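Hey, quick one: can you model this chain's 3D structure?
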Amino acid sequence: MIRFAVLVILAITTSASAQEAVTDTNGATLRALDKLSGKVTDMQLSNGEHQALGRIDVELDDCRYPEDDPAGDAYAFVTIRETGKPDPIFRGWMVASAPALNAMDHPRYDVWVMRCRTS
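Sure thing. Here's the predicted structure for all 119 residues.
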């Protein structure tokens, strides 16, 4: 399932970049949901920055948006680790307009990209 989702994301990213130019940004807004408490948290992250949220650590590696439509979509490469586990529980591209396309699979937390920073 994960390999399929990664292939789909790569196909979308590749076809998007072939059809429209994208702009790299220096940060993004990510939203996280703690399914146990129902608490929603918005995180403002710069590229390379990470933020702890409960038992997970969210790191933003890159965020891009269509050059001619900054509000149109956001593509963020995110790495998420769980406390005490060496391997990431998620590492890949998230697409704001299709959050379920490459969603993090975790029993307690959901994380998705909202938008790239445009200024």
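One thing worth noting: Residues 2-116 form one domain.
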